[in-house]
Amino acid sequence: MEKIRCGWCEKDDVYRKYHDEEWGKPVYDDETIFEFLILESFQAGLSWYTILTKRENFRKAFDDFDYKKIASYSDEKIEELMQDTGIIRNRLKILATVTNAQKFQEIQKEFGSFSKYIWGFVEGKPIDNRPKTLKDVPATTEISDTLSKDLKKRGFKFMGSTVVYAHMQATGMMNDHVEDCYLRK
């Protein structure tokens, strides 16, 4: 019997694998949370599929998403990234990645971990929205609005409410698997 999944992931095996193995599963380690923050910020204005198919290129280009290294990228490294055809070569997004890595570490110092900070917005556990269909899945919520505003106040870039909500879905802070998705059962 074929698995029933959320409709958005049926484009191809890349999407199905991401849906089945990652999307909506709670992530509490700072390294993976940072990886998704970076990928989501590059997605702004683009499709998630575009980012997903370039994920390994991003991993290689951005030192395995090592926020400590990224926080101290030089102008030379930024120019090198601007020449990398395997990633999205948007200077503002690349510069934002460096800034976000620096701000990420500031939050770690303040809260003990970034995970503790971000999961605090949902009281430490996933919110299950129980959508019946894809039409019932919001692009933003009050929580993503609040988190986005807080991140921006702390100096993060490319962290609008839609990007933040997508991040919350990806890292399992929000469970938006539709009612008949096999992962819901």
TrEMBL record:
Superkingdom of source: Bacteria
InterPro entries: Adenine_glyco, DNA-3mA_glycosylase, DNA_glycosylase, Tag
Coiled-coil blocks: none
Pfam families documented for this protein: Adenine_glyco
Gene3D superfamilies, sorted: Hypothetical protein, domain 2
Name of this chain's protein: DNA-3-methyladenine glycosylase I
